[in-house]
Amino acid sequence: MLNTNIISIIFLGDTNGINSKNAKIRFKEELKKIYNNLEDKSNFNYPDNINLESCNRFLKDEFTFKLSKKDNSIFSVEIIPKSDNKEKKDNLRKKLKELRNKRCNTAMKKMNAVKKDVGSDLIESFLKAQKAMKGYPIPDPSEIMNNKEKYLQEFTEYKQMVNQMKNDNTSNILKKNPYHQYALKVIDMLENN
Question: What are the structural domain ranges in the chain?
Answer without folding.
Answer: 8-82, 118-192
